[in-house]
């Protein structure tokens, strides 16, 4: 065991550094990721140490970033791209959905695109428009892409390395408002022995209800579970980790035990990750449910102006309200 | 730059300079950094530029420059004090923006980025208008067509397509082809020129002969990335690939910026199609208040550009020409201060939005889903009334 304490942001930086060290074909591309180290400093110092051909400041064009990285991948590189903010991934959407996701299928398995698309996502940072979105559903809906989100420094450190090592294209969602939260990372594990990112994880055990979250809402769900404990309610908290595919077995095992499920995310609810979870849980746990699967999510509006974002985002009270409704059914 | 030099043939610079392709003799300039007036200057497009302003008009341009800088300083201060969540300063780009803004006619339409505060001011719009966006109160909220000034666009390059479409509409409406025709000015930075949207907009503008001027403020940086990350040729030369003329102007020279912008807009409104203007300038401050330029640029470079300051340049010109005296400059400073103070007061008085308003205007015809969520939201928040929440 070699336990180090680090922030989620620094854990991703350290994980990227390891990935660059371990495989000379790994390269990073994105806007302002070189000298500046990215607007969130996630690539801080990497260009200095690995050079301009491995940590590449791209021209200001997202379709260009992802599209050229498809070519680099065909050539045998393992590109890790940074999209500066969630709301700026859309110029690259066509490349991601039509090319990155489908190349393997189209080539009957001959062409792999082992690309990682890193996207800082979610709100709560007081930003202007396009800097606080949760677009994971668009990608989860696309076959051929895997979508994961990290919520702890350990997953940030190992998850990014697993993503880089995987031959599957992976959209990697980073909880930007949690970049500075600290936790322990066991750096003596390996990519193979660290908890695999395709599995969900029970972060807190409980018997009365299951809260399911991912990314920035995991912290909120844990806080809500602790608050509910004061009212004598025992809440289990699951960090989904993989948004697509969903590790449904871990989820259903929990819900069969607790009989209640509340799903929490920042993205709007309509046709979302929580819609999928509600359907799957209902199909598989129908006779164990004490209440319908409930959802606490962002509203079905565009992400609003910063001065009302607190009311838009699920918070402790709204999650507790969801739990109350599940108990009161 | 002497006027004779302007006729030199265009060359593609391969120099890897710290601040991108150097401004060469192909740059239109009517005022030297020392404030000396150059009578005429020929652009790379072969057009000879000049201005013929009255003393009053010269003073007016100085006043614009001084006021937009003062407002910018005030907004920066408001941001530092937590009254704005972010601010994108125009410092250094005042001449390019005042020149472009004053060159537009009332019937013309502007498609700005998030930095066009100077253009907005020169269009006669209350400078408070975009501050609600930077304060986090709303996301713009104005009527683009009413002000002939589209909302600020944050997604890099998108507005270039919108401007082109609007200009195509001017063609379809037959409002082009005379000296009273309409034209569009679409603004963007040097970084934006890399975006697919911008490329496509220039394809469309060329093909449809749209009355639009692409006004690129090359401030040498896209956040941390210097110009050579975006181009190997001077940006104005890009236009030839789309079949319309391009010209580079000294963006720190308000007279040249005005002359070039005015000519380009008249070119468009009279039915001659699009033009690309590259205003060669410098971003004196950080990209926004959240940026740290010490990570990626030398302070010596900033010092070099301070010597080309657009406002000092105009001031020396006015002084040399004896067009303005100390009393004039003092009165401009006093007016600028008053406008800035008034802006500050009104920002501080801006009410926060009602939380429930976040459900407004999702659709022109409304939506049962949004209505249901609004009702739930209201009930939920009412449940806290009277509690300490
Ligand atoms: C599509 C898109 N990608 C990334 C960003 C983030 N971003 C905001 S401003 C900026 C740099 C813009 O540079 P430039 O076009 O030169 O204009 P300037 O800000 O220098 O005026 C970037 C990368 C964005 N707003 N939109």
Automatic annotation (TrEMBL), chain A:
It holds the Pfam family Transket_pyr. The keyword Oxidoreductase applies. Keywords: Oxidoreductase, Thiamine pyrophosphate. GO terms for molecular function: magnesium ion binding; oxidoreductase activity. Residues 6-181 form the Transketolase-like pyrimidine-binding domain. SUPFAM superfamilies: Thiamin diphosphate-binding fold (THDP-binding), TK C-terminal domain-like. Its cofactor is thiamine diphosphate. This is 2-oxoisovalerate dehydrogenase subunit beta.
UniProtKB/TrEMBL annotation, chain B:
Residues 66-353 form the Dehydrogenase E1 component domain. The keyword Disulfide bond does not apply. Its cofactor is thiamine diphosphate. GO terms for biological process: branched-chain amino acid catabolic process. Keywords: Oxidoreductase, Pyruvate, Thiamine pyrophosphate. Residues 1-28 are annotated as: Disordered. It holds the Pfam family E1_dh. One of its GO terms (molecular function) is oxidoreductase activity, acting on the aldehyde or oxo group of donors, disulfide as acceptor. CDD domains: TPP_E1_PDC_ADC_BCADC. It comes from the Bacteria. InterPro entries: Alpha-ketoacid_DH_E1_comp (IPR050771), DH_E1 (IPR001017), PdhA/BkdA (IPR017596), THDP-binding (IPR029061). This is Pyruvate dehydrogenase E1 component subunit alpha. It comes from Pilimelia terevasa.
